[in-house]
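pls design
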């Protein structure tokens, strides 16, 4: 299935249509139809930014999942937690309240209402879980990883946050690789990786490491954060001492850290093509190494990479979903926890099987702010090209 940007020269004028209406639709691999309703606030707009490559015209059938902006007052009649931070049941909806913001879910998890500034990712995970339920039955597992393609085969990079996953991707795209995914992708029991063409969520310092990359700002906060980052680096440099502390303070505390920047890969790398599917040849676990002076890549057992992927996926989304579903089951009387356990168990089986038939590595990545200036982008690209060439020679 081909996913065309709606604002591309050959696509429809998606941006104008979106601003004119309050509903937009996203067909995820032909398996799940998502509708996003309402405008204003980061909760629904991040869905639109992330999934824009999947956007389709208004369909003839009903959506599988609806995410809707709301400003209604939802009061729980039963709650686990305090007045401003709880899981609750209103008699109609399961509520996740975080201060003045909340998410309200109807039984079945097919209709999710979010207040304008509810954390978007906390609403994304339940939607994505519905897609995971469908794809896992087809032998597909969601993995927190980036991925590239070269010479018809894929190299996949599972990683914890801040290990260099996005910078690794940008380095390899600049080295001529095709684009599979930045943040998560689907590993198949058949040994293939499916691309996941979400817009790339980049930090200003990712952009500063790769001159020429431009981002779309989600909101005013994200524009101010980038301005603050750049202003301090221009004035003080980008060292690890006072300037770094100031960057952290302004970016994450003084200016709210909720703003995000989304990048369409085609904007930064017009020559790069999105790859829908490719057989997996290498899986490289990225690990941040604060004491390392250079990039090192070494073979490791498949079981070590599998254990790391399980831990990473648990941290990224399964832990949050388990907390939601345990509270939901207790308040509503359902079996969402069992459904999650089934999906996670099957995904772990799929990942374990795939890793037994590919080359597995661990890469230690030095922690530098500016990959281009330090030469880290070239070092990463060279290291990955070496293992790709080694694997191709062995075939």
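designed seq:
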């Amino acid at each position: 299935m081909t996913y065309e940007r709606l604002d591309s020269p050959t696509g429809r004028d998606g941006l104008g249509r979106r601003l004119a209406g309050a509903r937009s639709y996203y067909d995820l691999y032909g398996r799940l139809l998502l509708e996003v309703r309402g405008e204003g606030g980061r909760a629904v707009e991040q869905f639109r930014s992330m999934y824009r490559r999947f956007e389709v015209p208004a369909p003839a059938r009903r959506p599988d999942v609806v995410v809707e902006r709301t400003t209604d007052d939802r009061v729980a009649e039963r709650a686990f937690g305090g007045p401003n931070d709880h899981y609750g049941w209103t008699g109609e909806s399961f509520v996740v309240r975080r201060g003045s913001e909340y998410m309200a879910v109807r039984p079945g998890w097919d209709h999710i209402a979010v207040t304008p500034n509810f954390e978007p990712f906390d609403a994304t995970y339940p939607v994505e879980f519905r897609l995971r339920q469908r794809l896992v039955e087809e032998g597909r597992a969601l993995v927190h990883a980036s991925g590239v393609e070269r010479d018809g085969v894929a190299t996949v990079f599972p990683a914890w946050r801040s290990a260099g996953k996005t910078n690794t991707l940008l380095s390899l795209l600049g080295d001529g690789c095709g684009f599979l995914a930045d943040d998560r992708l689907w590993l198949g029991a058949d040994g293939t990786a499916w691309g996941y063409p979400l817009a790339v969520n980049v930090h200003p310092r990712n952009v500063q490491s790769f001159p020429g990359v431009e981002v779309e700002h989600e909101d005013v906060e994200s524009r101010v954060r980038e301005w603050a980052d750049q202003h301090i680096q221009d004035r003080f440099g980008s060292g690890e001492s006072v300037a770094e502390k100031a960057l952290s303070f302004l970016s994450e505390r003084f200016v709210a850290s909720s703003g995000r920047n989304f990048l369409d890969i085609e904007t930064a790398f017009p020559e790069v093509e999105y790859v829908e599917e490719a057989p997996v040849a290498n899986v490289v676990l990225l690990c941040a190494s604060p004491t390392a002076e250079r990039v090192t890549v070494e073979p490791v057992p498949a079981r070590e990479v599998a254990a790391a992927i399980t831990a990473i996926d648990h941290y990224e989304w399964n832990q949050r979903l388990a907390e939601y579903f345990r509270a939901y089951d207790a308040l509503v009387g359902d079996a969402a926890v069992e459904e999650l356990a089934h999906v996670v168990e099957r995904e772990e089986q799929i990942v374990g099987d795939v890793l037994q038939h590919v080359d597995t590595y661990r890469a230690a990545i030095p922690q530098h702010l500016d990959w281009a200036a330090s030469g880290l982008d070239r070092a990463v690209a060279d290291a990955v090209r070496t293992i790709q060439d080694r694997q191709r020679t062995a075939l």
